Amino acid sequence: MIMFKNFNLPCALNFLNYLEETQALLKISEIENSISFSIQRSNSISLLGLTYCKINQINNYYTHFFKKYTQCLWAKKLSDFGISYKEAFKNLKGNELQQLLLKFVNSSGVTLSLLKDFCLFVDVSFQEGLITYLQELLLSWDPVVEIKTNNSNKEEIVFKSTESLRKLCFEILSKVNSESKPDVQNVLLTTWNKVNYYYYEVFSIIIELYEKLTNNIREEFNGYKILLTFLMSYRRVR
Predict the structure, then answer these.
(1) Which residues of the chain have pLDDT under 50?
(2) What is the pLDDT of residue 230?
(3) Helix ranges, the chain (H)
(4) What residues form DSSP beta bridges with 148?
(5) What Cα–Cα distance (Å) separates residue 40 from each residue in 85, 118, 151, 175?
(6) Is the distance from CB of 198 to CB of 237 less than 8 angstroms?
(7) CA 104 to CA 119: how far, in whole Å?
(8) From the record, what ranges are coiled-coil (predicted)?
């Protein structure tokens, strides 16, 4: 008998080894279909099926259990990011898949390595994931400000360094392949029109990214560069 409260993989495998292969697979399927859903139970039974099929080289069932096991792993990860674990078990397409990607890249703690794994799991191009992440970083930037009182007894808004944002954006850009560069250019130009007017630092980063990407500078950006340099050095008084 296979128990889930204190699931023991070696013991469960020993139990299955007493059965014929067909009976063992039937037993796993029966348990899989009968358990009330929980990440822990689904993870246990899929791991059992995956391991049993690997040991006995049962390729057709191995694929099924590998998919279920991967879904369970991502269900836990999504839950940790504040996203419903149920999303991992849905066959999302189109707009629903795009919405899940947006939720993921806007979650705290996302890394490029994790994003790559996520894109592989949901069958989205890593390049699409990178471009989406880049745009969301620029649009969702929330400045860290400090309020100081100057010599005239007026409060000044001091924006702290955006170096971490700049560094991550350029790291993303370094992983964009040549085929995706035109898409990134379009996204940067589109994002330019959506950024908060007072976030001069983000406009400056967009220009830097565009220059790095194209090895050129748009003529219209030349004037903006001078203006942004002035605005970022200008004291913002409340």
Answers:
(1) 1, 230, 237-238
(2) 47
(3) 9-17, 21-34, 39-55, 59-80, 94-105, 112-122, 126-140, 163-174, 181-192, 200-214, 219-233
(4) 156
(5) 12, 20, 61, 35
(6) no
(7) 10
(8) none
